[in-house]
Amino acid sequence: MNISTVNPPPQAQALLSGAQKVSTYETTGGLVTAQFASHNLTLIPPLQDGAIIHDNACGSGTVSRLLLSIPNLPSDLRIHATDIDPPFLSALQDDALQNAWPLSATHQKSEALNFADNTFTHSLTNIAIFFTSGAGLDGAREIYRTLQPGGTAVVNCWAHVTWLLPVRAVHEHIRPGKPFPTPVVAWHDGKHIQKVMRDAGFREQDMRIERSDAWVVVKRSGLREWAEKSWAYLGGIANWSEGDEEKWDQAVNKLVELLLVQPGTIVEGDEVRMKASQWVVVATK
Predict the structure, then answer these.
(1) How far apart are alpha carbons 51 and 75 in whole angstroms?
(2) pLDDT tens per residue across span 143-171
(3) At what angle do helices 19-26 and 86-99 cross, to 10 degrees?
């Protein structure tokens, strides 16, 4: 999904500038990607001495932070976190320095890492492989290249996102006649993520896949704020358009309306729950 950040309306710009971008993400889609990461870490064996971990496309370090909260970690653990988004890297690096974490954060593309072959015991990529070039294959090849023989890779992708169809419907409502982009490759059935890992070099017998769910949970009174932040992030999927500033409130209100009636939404009292699902592949080199 190529989300444009070119010429966003001022309302989006205010929510996506500098450190605010990190907060906006972590209080919207980040609520479920963090649950995915937590679940996925239960799928790998306990970390052993000498563990060298790549937190690939790390964002603000969701995976790293979860790893560092595990009790009795190896004393020589080392984490290398990489991403291409400066505000996220800055947030992670600042916390790493403040807390003396065994972590370095560097600006690197997942498709062109500067690490040597066979560097990592673990390579963990949380909701990012589909952003890499070659329909994910270029990113998967770098995961395989930089992983040690016997090392473990974890990658995941969206299987279902309750709020994606509402975002598309809002786009069609406020930008009539402008096509909404269709993904070149469908990831939602879990087949493509397995294919790119096989094509990168991982053997079928050394891979396992599973599907799991997570939920965004917000108060009914906070749903509009959640929808506004989500629109700031996702409203650029089909590129921002002239007139989006004037139609901002209309778009956000329509998104709230649609979210409440989606099959993946459950409203219980003053609580709104919205489901998202992932496919996760755990592979050994």
Answers:
(1) 10
(2) 999 999 999 999 999 999 999 999 999 99
(3) 90
Question: Which pLDDT belongs to residue 5?
Answer: 58
CB 64 within 8 A of CB 130: no
What is the pTM for the complete model shown?
Answer: 0.95
Q: Which contiguous run of DSSP H or E holds residue 29?
A: none
Asked whether the beta carbons of 110 and 166 are under 8 A apart, the reply is no
Strands (E), the chain: 52-56, 78-83, 103-107, 120-125, 147-161, 207-219, 265-268, 271-284
Bridge partners (DSSP) listed for residue 284: 152
User: Which tokens in the block code for residue 94?
Assistant: 């600042």
For residue 54, is pLDDT > 70? yes
Phi/psi at 8 (nearest 5 deg)?
Answer: -70, 155
Q: Cα(141)–Cα(147) distance, rounded to whole angstroms?
A: 10
Helix (H) or strand (E) holding 259: helix 248-259
Task: Compute the C-alpha angle 40/58/47, nearest 5°.
Answer: 45
| Mode of pairing for the β-strands spanning 271-284 and 207-219 | antiparallel
pLDDT digits (tens, 9 = 90+) for 174-228: 999 999 988 768 999 999 999 999 999 999 999 999 999 999 999 999 999 999 9
Q: Are 254 and 174 in contact (CB under 8 A)?
A: yes
